[in-house]
Amino acid sequence: MNKEYYNNNAKSFVENTLNVDMTNLYDRFEKHLKKGDKILDLGCGSGRDSLYFKNQGYSVEAIDYSEELAKSASKLIGQEVLVKDMREISYVSEFDAIWACASILHINRMDIHVIIKNCARALKNGGVFYLSFKYGNKEEIKNGRFFNFYDEVSFKELISTIDNLEIIELFTTVDVRPKREHEHWLNIILKKI
Predict the structure, then answer these.
(1) How would you classify the pairing of strands 184-192 and 123-134?
(2) What's the predicted TM-score (pTM) here?
(3) What is the mean pLDDT of each run of 10 residues along the chain (193 residues)?
(4) Which CATH code of 3.30.390.10, 3.40.190.10, 3.40.50.150, 3.40.50.2300 fits the domain covering 3-192?
């Protein structure tokens, strides 16, 4: 996990991510939701996505492992962001949806099964789960942060070991941040069955 990095770089991280246009991803996720659904923003970072979902009429619970990002996001969204390690979440059938945008990618392959199983347990039956990874099939430390990359094949292998989740969408996108057009992302929407 990259807690120290995000605590030390919270201000620049928020500045670089807060105004990124996520419309395409929101649209793909929201077609599986109904107004008033309860969403867990898992690793909420700047709070950008939590704020969007709140403004669309959803109930949002936001968590982040970084105390500094949680403070900043709390101010932005006007509610407390909980400081939690996603490896230790213990919700049971509480959420209609989970949004994990560029957050679970910081979990190593030894621990990722735990996170995904915890998320499945946190979802109500029929709930949806969005997650994204840098595109590839490797783990690396880059500029002081750990990243776990998946492609279609490696992610399908991972999810095949978890009984109650099925893939409903699997697609790639180009990074929408300026000067990041060469970076690609694997985006997944899962459903609890």
Answers:
(1) antiparallel
(2) 0.91
(3) 64 66 92 96 93 97 91 94 93 98 92 95 98 96 89 96 95 78 90 97
(4) 3.40.50.150
